[in-house]
Amino acid sequence: MPAPHTDPAPTGALNVRPPEAEVQRRRNQRDAVARSKPAGPRFVQVLMAILTPFFLLIAAVRVVASPVFLWIEYYRPGFPGDGYGFSTDDRLTYGSYAVDYLANLAGPRYLGSLVLPSGDHLFNAGEVSHMADVKGVVLSAYGAGIVLLLFFVFAFIGLRKTKGAFVRGVFAGAFVTIGIIIALAVLAALGWEQFFTDFHRIFFANGTWTFRLEDTLIRLFPGQFWVDSALVVGVLVMLVASLLVIFCWPTPRRVARREAVQAAVGPE
């Protein structure tokens, strides 16, 4: 008696192994997907590398633009005195007004209304106008610094589940920062006067930032003050960038630790 006809089970095809070439093709596709990195984290890392130098420079400027640095500068050995009669205490008092003005919300009258014991105005109209321009630049830089800080906070939050992404961004930014500081240092060393002049031309109109030797701004902030300020800013930025390179360097131990943490966290 012939055996009854039966249709093959619907899942029977699942038990048939595809050709080896097809198996290898699918395996290669899976490996390629696993190795590929999303474009989003890469874009954020590039932004971090570009913006890190600006953030560190703004932070260093904020440190220098303070009464503490002013006190250290005026009382350090070798700082040139004022040949027109200001004592060190006078300089610290009047200079502190100028520094405070850059960080507060007061208008030009804050400096324009200051008078000397003789009754003369401490700052003339040109000096007050220039300080108002400087204040605009400084407050804009501080505002940009706050925005950059928020960017790095959000970058950390957004990249925390992508293994080592934030650290790599900081690492790249630190190297970019070191390169920029070295380049600026070379330019300043080759010609400080030209470097100082070009810097002012970027932010201020010609004729608004040059004064006579007897003007108060020059007496409070002589050329040596700006040399020292630039040096301190450069050293601070270079120091922080170097520390970031050291602590973010991808040593095998750190890479293994990050991989262990990523494995413990698991995929999203």
Distance between the termini: 61 Å
The tally of strands reads 0
Overall 3D form = elongated
Largest sheet: none
Note the beta-strand portion. under 5%
- Radius of gyration, taken over Cα atoms and rounded to an integer in Å: 31 Å
Number of helices: 11
Which spans have pLDDT < 50 for at least 5 consecutive residues? none
Structural class, by secondary structure, is mainly alpha
Topology readout:
Blueprint: H1 20-35, H2 39-64, H3 67-75, H4 88-103, H5 109-112, H6 125-159, H7 165-190, H8 192-203, H9 216-220, H10 223-248, H11 252-265
Helix pairs in contact: 2-6, 2-7, 2-10, 3-4, 4-6, 7-8, 7-10
Describe this structure in words.
The chain starts with 19 loop residues before the first helix and ends with a helix. It has helices at 20-35, 39-64, 67-75, 88-103, 109-112, 125-159, 165-190, 192-203, 216-220, 223-248, 252-265. By secondary structure, it is an all-alpha fold. 71% of the residues lie in helices and 0% in strands.
